[in-house]
Amino acid sequence: MKRIRVLVVDDSSTMRGLIATALSSDAEIEVVGQAEDPLQARQAIKALNPDVVTLDVEMPNMSGLEFLEKIMRLRPMPVIMVSTLTSRGAEETVRALEIGAVDCIEKPRPGNEHNFEELPFKVKIAAMARVRPLTTESERQKNAIEARSAHGQYASDGRVLAIGASTGGVEALIELLSHFPENCPPTVIAQHMPPSFTKSFANRLNRLCPAQVQEATHGAKLAPGQVFLAPGGSLHLEIAGKGDLRCVMKAGDRVNGHCPSVDVLFESVARSCGSRSVGVILTGMGRDGASGLLSMRKAGARTFGQNESSCIVYGMPKAAFDIGAVEKQLPLDRLAAAIVSETSTIKKH
Length: 349
Fold this sequence. Notes:
Layout: E1 4-9, H1 13-24, E2 29-35, H2 38-48, E3 52-56, H3 64-74, E4 79-83, H4 87-99, E5 103-106, H5 119-128, H6 137-151, E6 160-165, H7 169-177, E7 187-191, H8 195-208, E8 212-215, E9 226-229, E10 235-240, E11 246-251, H9 262-273, E12 277-281, H10 290-298, E13 302-306, H11 316-322, E14 328-330, H12 332-343
Parallel strand pairs: 1-2, 1-3, 3-4, 4-5, 6-7, 6-12, 7-9, 8-9, 12-13, 13-14
Antiparallel strand pairs: 10-11
């Protein structure tokens, strides 16, 4: 069996040891090297050719973000960011996921000493990921401006848009929502992400996208131009109501290993909206969202899935497609236009 080769990059020898110990507990993973800064890491990547790199967000000589940008431009490879639980650490981690890091994990802290137990699983997913070269900020902004100008007039038909995503979802959601018009469909999103990062992600989306994006709160009213992101943690996001739809935050067990769960969100949309909704499932590992999207489709909703070639991990969309939940598969760069066209009252001839 070929083991997954990992390079650990962190300026703290203690943290490098904790990461290496957590990874070495899995027989399918081999820690082939360690580096204390990006300069050492660059040489180690050349010499050791690792399959996956774990990268500290804050380091001397060059920040983790700067180094990640260089990796994604010159030698794209799977990277997992290791972050402190600070507002700055959260913001930089979200930016790293946008640049192309596959996943992130928090450093252990009091009350969360066993956080690295998830790391071997995350490394295995990362090793399977399709990593693409970095799209520059200027290219992304140019593409978004062109897409918005191409929309011309748009008026939401009132249908609710529900989106689910996991691994690779940060990059995909930024790409998708930045191409939406300002008065986009009322939108709810479940993205698998640690609780400390969802607020920073919502803020980042709000800065980059024409619509208003915020973390969902209990009782928040759905309306065109409003996008609600499920907070990470112990609450599921649902929507409820008939004419006056609102966000409902409900405590509950993990579903498919996740809270918030895409399935829980989609099932609530199927119940509350039926055919007055559109469901979209994006890149991610596992099958969360598949059965919920099928419920939406059976209730009359239109459903879309991200296609295999544009996914970082073609897990969730494949699971949904395999059971007949996805009506149409499209590459990420065509999904926004399809959703906008589907939900507009102004139809092009």
